[in-house]
């Protein structure tokens, strides 16, 4: 019985984040960075080996993003990053985050959400003139690196079809160009990578084709069949890997592909197992069963997993079954052992990446009939811990449950339609034409983080911390007045993160000290864990927003994170539906919105950047999700009077396919990220005749680069062709003050120019 983890690449203490940021700041040499990377890889390989994992992944490590790694490796380097006199490493980072230094000025590539997760990948840009070339064989090099320390690994590669489908046509490509048309040119490069892996001594290779869990894969079945028949000839044994969803009707062609193994996600889609087992039974395919969740932090129920796996084994034989994690482990924290604040009772419910690796190994040992007393005691300990958790899950907050049960349709609707509200809002709050505002956060400086760290360690008092935050708010307010923004924000300095902050202040959550998960590049989050019914004990943000409003005559926008986003960026509980959890969150937020309005705040933004990413991977499941997701947002926001302007904000999203749902949110103003996504989505707003206000972002805040005033003017002109007036951008917490000042000055100048021009 073999055991595998699908990917495991992060350091337990954000070592890579620190090393990469130090490199960007010029405080770390390439050698330092390479050394930090080598240490993390070694640590992961050895700790997986120690835990009894037989198929240890390599080649999955990344300094920024694994899709970007493939682009670099395959020479998919857009022309704007070429000829800049930069080292290959700096070209790589320039593609990820843009670069503005020593005469070089290039924007970052677009990022998109990786399936339904909060991880962002860098989108490959492809065109008929793309010339694929093997710049370096990264999986082979890392395979050798592991081998040199005595560890035999199974390299991981993102499959060619998913790579192309996840990419986009570059701006210079003809309008009818589809990246998949490049497949015949790409396959020889993959053949080269794989044959070199075989030469290096790899027995197996894991090829990820995650698009196989989506409807769209069906149209590529011919390509799948041909490509894998070709690759199989030169490659090590291929473990074709899928995750996050079900194969569904794609199973018919997938089960006939020329591969040695197939990995499926049993955690997310337990029901698919019977069909998959039946489909592969007549073949020689080895089935890798992803039981142990790569997306949830709950301990696996070993007894029921063993029962299920035994069925598969009796159909296929033990030699043809591998026990695995469901997906890559980059979506969950690394180790539970470093948590000291979670109570022992709670800790016993969870399992993070390294504990998951242990779980797969124990499961495999049980299934192999191991007589080791350590294994039987692990099984017994698991039984006890699962039954304790089930006991805990029986506790419920009856007040919250009753409130959810008595939600009425009327609670989801504002008093009047938008045109009426618009008048009421104009009377309540005067804003110029092309009003400018920001998305909420201002730079989270070292000083702010240090102050919060001191508070956590009790080195300063709560009162001292509050004084510090107030000074910060005052600074942000004065800055916005000076630069000429119209609708102000308080800057969110009191928040460690827009989701974790609310999790920490609501009942029903548990949070970690060190449970970091990569979100993009060097940015990490600590998703809070929902463990029971959710409620609010009292106002959360009112103190800060009221203070901010009290020191300025300009209107101040309240700032909350929406129910769907809090849910999606937390680890949800497994015993209650996501719908119920979203509605419980919505009711708490509804109270907060009403409290803000009562305190005299006239505009309230409820961010829902995760609404699109939460969309199920299969079309048939969309409507059900969208119904409760939109209802939850409405439940949170619709309680206020007509005169209160509600805002919402979304980022990195392709809304064209869920447009009616965006409309149904009925927010008075929505602001969207538009600076990088080539205006595609704005075209949809025009097409669908969106009638409420829209603020297209004109400043890409994920890059340190400062957009020039001229650039912003050009964007405004483009937007004007598509949508009515309004001008906004996106959250600034990851930026430094220097570039924030320059960018926002350019932005308000451009708005002024637009007003005068009109
Ligand atoms: N949850 C979530 N998902 C999201 C977003 C988001 O804002 N939140 N935005 C989108 C983009 N994703 C993002 C994800 C992370 C960050 C981000 O800024 N992360 C910070 C950490 C934020 C944080 O938790 N800060 C804490 C802890 C900071 C910290 O590292 N403290 C030091 C100590 C500092 C000191 O002693 O001085 C430590 O713990 O070691 C705080 O401010 O309190 C980072 O990686 O650097 C930004 C965007 C999409 N998904
Ligand atoms: Zn955003």
Automatic annotation (TrEMBL):
PANTHER family for the chain: 5-METHYLTETRAHYDROPTEROYLTRIGLUTAMATE--HOMOCYSTEINE METHYLTRANSFERASE
Species per Swiss-Prot/TrEMBL record: Clathrus columnatus
Gene Ontology molecular function: 5-methyltetrahydropteroyltriglutamate-homocysteine S-methyltransferase activity; zinc ion binding
Cofactor: Zn(2+)
Binding site for L-homocysteine: 439-441, 607
Residues engaged in binding 5-methyltetrahydropteroyltri-L-glutamate: 17, 118, 569
Protein name: 5-methyltetrahydropteroyltriglutamate--homocysteine S-methyltransferase
Similarity section: Belongs to the vitamin-B12 independent methionine synthase family.
EC main group: transferase
């Amino acid at each position: 019985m073999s055991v595998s983890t699908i990917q495991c690449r992060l350091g337990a203490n954000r070592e890579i984040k620190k090393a990469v940021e130090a490199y960007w700041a010029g405080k770390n040499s390439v050698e330092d960075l390479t050394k930090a990377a080598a240490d993390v890889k070694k640590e992961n390989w050895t700790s997986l080996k120690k835990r009894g994992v037989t198929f240890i992944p390599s080649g999955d490590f990344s300094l920024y993003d694994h899709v970007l790694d493939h682009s670099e490796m395959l020479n998919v380097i857009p022309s704007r990053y070429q000829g800049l006199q930069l080292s290959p490493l700096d070209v790589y980072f320039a593609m990820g985050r843009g670069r503005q230094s020593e005469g070089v000025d290039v924007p970052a590539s677009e990022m998109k959400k990786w399936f339904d997760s909060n991880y962002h990948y860098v989108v490959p840009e492809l065109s008929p003139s793309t010339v694929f070339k093997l710049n370096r064989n990264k999986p082979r090099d890392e395979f050798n690196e592991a081998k040199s320390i005595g560890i035999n690994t199974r390299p991981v590669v993102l499959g060619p079809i998913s790579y192309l489908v996840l990419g986009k046509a570059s701006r210079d490509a003809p309008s009818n160009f589809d990246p998949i048309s490049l497949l015949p040119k790409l396959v020889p490069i993959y053949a080269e990578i794989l044959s070199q892996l075989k030469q290096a001594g790899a027995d197996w290779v894991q090829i990820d084709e995650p698009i196989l869990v989506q409807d769209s894969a069906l149209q590529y079945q011919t390509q799948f069949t041909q490509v894998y028949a070709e690759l199989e000839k030169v490659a090590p044994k291929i473990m074709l890997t899928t995750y996050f969803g079900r194969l569904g009707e794609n199973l018919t062609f997938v089960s006939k592909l020329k591969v040695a193994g197939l990995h499926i996600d049993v955690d997310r889609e337990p029901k698919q197992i019977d069909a998959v087992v039946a489909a592969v039974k007549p073949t020689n395919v080895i089935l890798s069963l992803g039981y142990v969740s790569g997306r949830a932090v709950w301990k696996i129920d070993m007894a029921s997993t063993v029962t299920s796996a035994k069925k598969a084994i009796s159909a296929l034989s033990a030699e043809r079954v591998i026990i695995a994690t469901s997906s890559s482990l980059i979506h969950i924290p690394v180790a539970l052992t470093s948590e000291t604040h979670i109570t022992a009772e709670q800790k016993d419910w969870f399992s993070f990446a390294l504990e998951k690796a242990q779980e797969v190994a124990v499961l495999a040992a049980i299934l192999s009939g191991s007589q080791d007393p350590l294994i039987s005691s692990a099984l017994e300990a698991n039984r006890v811990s699962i039954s304790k958790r089930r006991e805990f899950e029986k506790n419920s907050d009856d007040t919250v449950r009753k409130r959810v049960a008595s939600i009425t349709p009327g609670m989801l609707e504002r008093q009047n339609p938008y045109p009426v509200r618009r008048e009421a809002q104009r009377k309540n709050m005067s804003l110029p034409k092309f009003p400018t505002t920001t998305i909420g956060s201002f730079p989270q400086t070292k000083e702010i983080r240090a102050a919060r760290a001191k508070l956590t360690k009790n080195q300063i008092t709560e009162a001292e911390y509050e004084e510090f935050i107030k000074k910060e708010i005052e600074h942000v307010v004065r800055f916005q007045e000076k630069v000429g923004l119209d609708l102000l924000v308080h800057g969110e300095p009191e928040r460690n993160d827009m989701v974790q902050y609310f999790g920490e202040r609501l009942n029903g959550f548990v949070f970690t000290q060190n449970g970091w998960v990569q979100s993009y590049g060097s940015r990490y989050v600590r998703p809070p864990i929902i463990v029971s019914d959710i409620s609010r004990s009292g106002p959360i943000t009112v103190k800060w927003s009221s203070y901010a409003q009290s020191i300025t005559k300009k209107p101040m926008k309240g700032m909350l994170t929406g129910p769907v986003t809090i849910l999606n960026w937390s680890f949800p509980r497994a015993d209650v539906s996501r719908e119920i959890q979203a509605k419980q969150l919505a009711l708490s937020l509804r109270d907060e919105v009403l409290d803000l309005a009562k305190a005299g705040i006239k505009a309230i933004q409820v961010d829902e950047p995760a609404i699109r990413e939460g969309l199920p991977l299969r079309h048939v499941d969309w409507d059900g999700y969208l119904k409760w997701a939109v209802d939850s947002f409405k439940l949170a926001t619709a309680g206020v009077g007509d005169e209160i302007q509600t805002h919402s904000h979304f980022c990195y999203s392709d809304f064209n396919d869920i447009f009616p749902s965006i409309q149904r949110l009925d927010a008075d103003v929505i602001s969207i990220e538009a600076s990088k996504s080539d205006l595609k989505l704005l075209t949809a707003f025009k097409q669908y005749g969106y009638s409420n206000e829209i603020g297209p972002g004109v400043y890409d805040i994920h890059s340190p680069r400062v957009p020039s005033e001229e650039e912003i003017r050009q964007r405004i002109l483009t937007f004007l062709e598509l949508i009515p007036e309004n001008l906004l951008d996106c959250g600034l917490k990851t930026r430094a003050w220097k570039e924030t000042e320059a960018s926002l000055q350019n932005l308000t100048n451009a708005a002024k120019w637009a007003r005068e021009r009109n």
